[in-house]
C-alpha cells in the first residue's frame, strides 16, 4: 500500500507567512510631505496601518522616505510663511516672530504665586484701625437720614437725635 511519488507529483513547498507588500517609497514621501500621518498614508495607499508599521520596522529606507517627506513639507510651509511675512502679512509676521524668538515676542502672562498669612493681615488692619480711631474725636454717623415719624407726623432729623443722645450720655 505504499504510494510512490513521481517527479511530476512533487510540488514546491508553500511559503509560510503573509505575502510581502512593497510600497512605493516616492508615493510615501510625497504623502508625508503633504502633512499626512502614518494612518492617513495607509488609507491613501489602500493598506492597513499595521502594514505601514511593519514596513517602518523592516526597512530603514521606508522610515527615511517618511522623514524626508515630513522635512520637505515643513520646508515648503516655512518658506511660504517667510515669504508671506516679508511681503507684509502682519499675521504671518507675528506668528513667525513668536515662534522664532519666543523670549522677546511671546504673549506675556506672568503668574505671581504669593502666600498670604490672613492672621498677619487682620492684625495689621486692626492696628491701623485702632490708630485711626484714636485720632478721631467722634465717629461719623453713616446713613443719617431725615425721615417722617409715623407716630407724630413730624419731620425727624436722626442726626439731631444722635447729638441729643451724646449730650445726655456724657
Low-confidence stretches: none
* Class per helix and strand makeup: mainly alpha
Q: Would you tell me the overall average pLDDT?
A: 80
Rg from alpha-carbon coordinates: 43 Å
Helix fraction, binned, reads 55-70%
Biggest β-sheet description:
2 strands, antiparallel
Secondary-structure element string: HHHHHHHEEH
Q: Separation of termini?
A: 139 Å
The total strand number stands at 2
Taken from the alpha-carbon principal axes, the silhouette is: elongated
Physical arrangement of strands within the biggest beta sheet: 1-2
Structural topology:
Layout: H1 25-33, H2 38-45, H3 49-58, H4 60-86, H5 90-100, H6 102-105, H7 118-135, E1 146-148, E2 155-157, H8 158-169
Antiparallel strand pairs: 1-2
How would you portray this structure in words?
It contains 8 helices and 2 strands, in the order αααααααββα. With 170 residues, the protein is mostly helical. A two-stranded antiparallel ribbon has the order 1-2. 6% of the residues are buried. Helix content is 58%, strand content 4%. The chain has helices at 25-33, 38-45, 49-58, 60-86, 90-100, 102-105, 118-135, 158-169, and strands at 146-148, 155-157.
